[in-house]
Amino acid sequence: MRELRSSSFWRAVLAEFLGSLLYALLGLGASLRWAPGPPSVLGAALAFGLAQATLVQVLGPVSGGHVNPAITLAFLVASQLSLARALGYLLAQVLGNLAGAGVLYGLTPAPIRGTLGLSALHPGVGLGQGMVVELLLTAQFVLCVLASFDDRHDGRPGSAALPIGFSLALGHLFGVR
């Protein structure tokens, strides 16, 4: 419990909150349809990927730039994160994502808002199939993050941001189609 009294712990939790807020705001904001026609799947995928890469680069030295509960849980399971820090990150991520969606909701005109970027399964895809695809894409993303932060690479954490962002964009492109 000594960790809960350290300023670095609370700075990291705050970083995860702000990172999650920005991630939701930027990613969902790019998913909105401001013009008539089909939504831009490529634009949304790139927005989420670029937001993730930017946040990993900026917040990496403070909190690791997880921004995603799946990443936090993977680091916990891999014994790279304490239970207290993981719980703090998870709470901060949930609250940050809710705050980011709330800010976007407040900033976006009602006719543009729609479902606020919420996606749904294609009518021909069953719930089980959708869950398997989500599981595989999350596993691909988590493996990329763990590999990118592996100490056996070259010790340059800044080099992790680009593959992580590309990995997330790839998952979006595959999963949204």
From TrEMBL:
Pfam families: MIP. One of its GO terms (molecular function) is water channel activity. One of its GO terms (cellular component) is apical plasma membrane. Its main location: other. InterPro entries: Aquaporin-like, Aquaporin_transptr, MIP, MIP_CS. It comes from the Eukaryota. It is a multi-pass membrane protein. Keywords: Cell junction, Cell membrane, Eye lens protein, Membrane, Transmembrane, Transmembrane helix, Transport. It catalyses: H2O(in) = H2O(out). It is found in: Cell junction; Cell membrane. The chain crosses the membrane at residues 12-35, 83-107, 127-147. Aquaporins form homotetrameric transmembrane channels, with each monomer independently mediating water transport across the plasma membrane along its osmotic gradient. Specifically expressed in lens fiber cells, this aquaporin is crucial for maintaining lens water homeostasis and transparency. Beyond water permeability, it also acts as a cell-to-cell adhesion molecule, forming thin junctions between lens fiber cells that are essential for maintaining the ordered structure and transparency of the lens. PANTHER family: AQUAPORIN TRANSPORTER (PTHR19139), LENS FIBER MAJOR INTRINSIC PROTEIN (PTHR19139:SF39). Belongs to the MIP/aquaporin (TC 1.A.8) family. This is Lens fiber major intrinsic protein.
